Each structure stands twice: as C-alpha cells, then as structure tokens.
Amino acid sequence: MSLLTLVASAAAMAVQPVHTVDLEHRGTTYRVDYRAQVETRMRTVGMSAGPRTSTQRCVVTAKVMVERVIAGPQGQHELKSVLPGTETLTDHMPGDCRGREDHGQKLVAGKAQTVATHLAQAASADRQAALAAIDTAHHFAAN
Question: Quick one: 78 exposed, middle or buried, by C-beta within 10 A (0-12, 13-18, 19+)?
Fold first, then answer.
C-alpha cells in the first residue's frame, strides 16, 4: 500500500473567502472578519501491482477552520483568533495523488457555497464571544 501525504496552506488559495460583520459595542463600531483557513491533505490508498488492475485512488480532504479578526474603529489594532469547529470537505479520484497538488484548491473552490455558509454560521454563533474578546482587550489595555 502506497501513501502520499501533502499539506497545502490556505495562503496557496487564490481567493480567501471572508464574511464581514459590523459589531456595535459601547458606542463604537468594530469590523469583524471571519476568514476561512484551509488545510488540504491528499493521500493515495490502495495498491498498484504490476500488470494487475490498480485499486489506487486519491483521497483529498480539506479542513476549513474559521479565523476571527476584530479591527478597531481606526483599524490600527486587530484581535485574531481561530474559532472552534471545522467543516471537512472530501473528494475521491481514481489513481495516484502525485501530480495533482492543485486538486485541494479546486475542491474548496467547487464548494465555495458550503464554505460561505460555514463562515456565516460561525459569525452568527460568535457574537457574544466577539463582544467578550473586545471587553477583555479593553480590560488588558486599561491595566
């Protein structure tokens, strides 16, 4: 059994999906961006034994995490954190994974609506935690 594992960072993606929300807190408006952070993994499963028919297939998995970036009113300060929870996207192709390094990006691009929905759901569930992060930052800045 042959295994090939490749990891590509989200920086390799041409366009990084973002969901933006304006958050009003204590008379100040904060811009909160929810950005998709994607890790892709490819592995070859099965075997190819000489003249026999190959049972190899390439399994591509993309793990989508959400990074929250809170920008202050003038944009000079940012609070960044990765939120709990992930969305996992998977695709299977016949054959070996070698030479298919761009398929992880294609998988994420093909599931853009799923990624956008995941970002929107994370944003709606994160409101109270974002407000708490702003309060915490103010508390530490005051001390």
Answer: exposed
For CA atoms 46, 48, 51, 55, the dihedral sign is positive
- How many Å from the N-terminal Cα to the C-terminal Cα in the chain? 58
Domain that holds residue 125: 6-142
Q: Is residue 69 part of a domain?
A: yes
The residues of the chain scoring below 50 in pLDDT are 1-15
Q: What are phi and psi of 117, to 5 degrees?
A: -65, -40
pLDDT at position 4: 33
| Pair 1, 47: CB distance under 8 Å | yes
Domain count within the chain:
1
Backbone angles phi, psi at 29, to 5 degrees: -100, 125
Greatest pairwise CA separation for the chain in angstroms = 72
The answer as to whether 1 is a domain residue is no
